[in-house]
Amino acid sequence: MTLKIYGIGASRAVRPLWAATELGLQFEHVPVHYQGGATRAPAFLALNPNGHIPVLEDLRPEGKVTVWESMACTLYVAKIHGKADGQTITPATAQEDADALRWSFWTVTEVEKDALTILMHRLAMPADQRKPELADAAEQRLRVPYRVLESHLQAQAKSGHAYLSASRFTVADLCVASVLVWAKGSDLLMSEFPAVKAWLDLCVNRPAFSACRKMG
Ligand SMILES: N[C@@H](CCC(=O)N[C@@H](CS)C(=O)NCC(=O)O)C(=O)O
User: Fold this and answer.
1) What atom of ligand 1 comes closest to residue 69's alpha carbon?
2) How far apart are alpha carbons 36 and 91 in whole angstroms?
3) Pocket of ligand 1 (CB under 6 A)
4) Mean pLDDT in the chain?
């Protein structure tokens, strides 16, 4: 098998796992956990000196390609292992390529940190360690990028498109949804931005997403 993806599904590793699964690829899954020190072992640091999952290895005829950074891994899977035929998650036109890049960079720079704060302080951390005021402040900041996404989705809907790019689910949707799902528990954001909510439901209700989240 040429493709190897390191990292458990309940982490940012879900992003390349989800992309590979949507494409029906054969790959080896190495379920490295982010807790317990595995990401700081010398063998793992040799793969990713940052000591983070996910990491992707691709054994190619010209040599091994190693990728880290979850969005890079995901975009790589779609571009290198998908077919640009307008039927799959792989961008098939220059506009779709641009959409995949701009929305992925947008989500890591404009949304990810605050979405993680909401997840941690509303849901993931033990109740006695949560600081609701941090989640509240993150929600207020997120209203700015969510407004941008809401307008974009409304414009897409007017052209008959339910997704971020083109008329089908693409890697652009996958990358953005994999971050916004962290803040799905925010009643404020989900009620203020109904187009975002409807689109997010559409993305995360895909069977490949729930299957990959459980990959431990
Ligand atoms: N910007 C990186 C962040 C990666 C990251 O922080 N991964 C977490 C799991 S979601 C991790 O490996 N934590 C363990 C550690 O830092 O030791 C990416 O998107 O890949």
Assistant:
1) 20
2) 37
3) 11-12, 34, 39, 51-54, 69-70
4) 97
